[in-house]
Write a structure and sequence with these properties.
Blueprint: H1 2-18, E1 21-28, H2 29-33, H3 37-48, E2 50-57, H4 59-67, E3 73-76, H5 79-87, E4 91-106, H6 120-130, E5 134-136, H7 142-153, E6 163-165, H8 170-180, E7 183-187, H9 188-194, E8 201-204, E9 211-219, H10 229-240, H11 242-250, E10 252-253, E11 256-257, E12 260-261
Parallel strand pairs: 1-2, 1-3, 5-6, 5-7
Antiparallel strand pairs: 3-9, 4-7, 4-8, 4-9, 4-12, 10-11
Organism: Methyloprofundus sedimenti
InterPro entries: ABC-Tungstate_binding (IPR052738), PBP_domain (IPR024370)
Domain PBP: 26-241
């Protein structure tokens, strides 16, 4: 009996020494789909003996999880919504992490006759005039917010039957667009991650309106006392530090760089 008690006590001591803490992070499906986090997060987890619990959703939902205190840190790409999140006191320590850009992709046959370097507003006008299928995420994500702002700039209110909102993440939307041979807006990183699995090609890029910055924000412990602010701060420091920024800059798919570090 004594032997069993001593063995149980020893096991409890060992487990407490090696028990992992956990950090909850909400982020965008585009960040997750790119594969970048699978490169960055294991190094952080090993260094701090932490398990990162990643919830990949649209930016709107990611920020909502932060507002509710359901996560400790958010990593998103919708500047206006991020600033509102911070101004309302839900987030602190907002830091620039990286950027890439959005691209318009579609079938190689290009039925709307879009030119690669024309203004994105003109490209969207041609899609509307031709009434060819366009797949929208329709999920309040950063990409969806950007897409809606681009339609507004083009002075177009997209509508059925050619405009389809599917309420899905970026990877799923690319697959749907590929099946339907339709147009869609995507961040370049996710497109490159899916490039060898689809027939769609980049048909428009380069407009300044397609710039896509990502920021990381700690959930404010003054709003939610239970959040792990100290651990969130360590992750922010890691991903915006020299090592994290190098990992971001070095990350490539098909020989192309997916993201460009911004912390410095």
């Amino acid at each position: 009996m004594l032997k069993n008690i001593l063995l149980l006590s020893f096991c409890l001591i060992i487990n407490s020494v090696y028990a992992q803490d956990s950090l909850r992070m909400s982020t965008t499906t585009s960040t997750e789909n790119s594969g970048l986090l699978k490169v960055i997060n294991p190094l952080f987890e090993k260094r701090y003996n932490v398990h990162l619990d990643i919830i990949a959703v649209g930016t709107g939902k990611a920020l909502h999880l932060g507002e509710n205190g359901d996560v400790d840190v958010v990593f998103v790409h919708a500047p206006a919504a991020e600033l509102k999140f911070v101004q309302e006191g839900y987030g602190i320590d907002r830091k620039a992490v990286m950027h890439n850009d959005f691209v318009l992709i579609g079938p190689g046959s290009n039925p709307a006759n879009i030119d690669i370097n024309q203004p994105i507003a003109n490209a969207l006008q041609q899609i509307s005039q031709a009434q060819v299928d366009f797949i929208s995420r329709g999920d309040d994500s950063g990409t969806h917010k950007k897409e809606l702002s681009l339609w507004q700039q083009a002075e177009i209110t997209p509508a059925k039957p050619w405009y389809l909102e599917v309420g899905q993440g970026m990877g799923a939307v690319i697959k749907i667009a590929d099946e339907k041979q339709a147009y869609t807006l995507t961040d370049r990183g996710t497109y490159l991650a899916f490039k060898d699995k689809i027939d769609l090609v980049i048909l428009n890029e380069g407009d300044k309106a397609l710039f896509n910055p990502y920021h990381i924000i700690a959930v404010n412990p003054a709003k939610h006392k239970h959040v792990k602010y100290d651990l969130a701060k360590k992750y922010i420091d890691f991903i915006t530090g020299t090592e994290g920024q190098k990992l971001i800059g070095d990350y490539k798919k098909h020989g192309e760089q997916l993201f460009y570090p911004d912390a410095n």
